[in-house]
Design a protein that fits this description.
By secondary structure, the chain is α+β, with helices and mostly antiparallel strands. It has one domain. It has three helices and four strands; from the N terminus they run βββαβαα. It has a four-stranded mixed β-sheet. The longest helix has 12 residues. It is flat, with a radius of gyration of 26 Å.
Length: 136
């Protein structure tokens, strides 16, 4: 389940004369926990400041506080796409419940054992045989 995003935008001109789009957004999404594979609700909250620019040269000259928003051939920016991209970036890289809310806790987790280097077969051993057969 995904809810509608609550988005607030304000448009302004800063002291340098740059046009800026300042905003914040909140959305509730359902994610799948990568520990227990159960769905859980996650609130995603973001804040952003964009400055519309025509090209990459203008983007390079922006103050660090502003993200560039490239305008299209009509001089417009796609606000929906900007907010959507910000929300996607704000999602956790690995979705997991808080440990106290998850069915699987760290005490129940099982990790595989890695064999010692001398116990593992050499993956290049096949090449040794290949080299010998080519010399004949």
């Amino acid at each position: 389940m995904i809810s509608d995003a609550e988005v607030k935008l304000s448009f302004d001109v800063d002291v340098q004369g740059l046009k800026i789009v300042r905003g914040d957004a909140t959305v509730d999404v359902t994610l799948e926990c990568q520990r227990c594979w159960e769905n859980y609700s996650h609130r995603c909250e973001i804040e952003f400041i964009y400055c519309p620019v025509v090209n990459d040269d203008q983007a390079d000259d922006l103050p660090d506080a502003y993200e560039p928003a490239i305008v299209d051939e009509n001089g417009e920016i796609n606000l929906i796409q900007l907010v959507e991209d910000e929300l996607i970036v704000a999602l956790p890289q690995v979705a997991m419940h808080k440990e106290e809310d998850c069915k699987v806790n760290s005490e129940n987790m099982v990790y595989g054992e890695i064999p010692l280097a001398d116990e593992r077969p050499n993956p290049f051993a096949v090449l040794k045989n290949f080299k010998q057969s080519n010399e004949e």
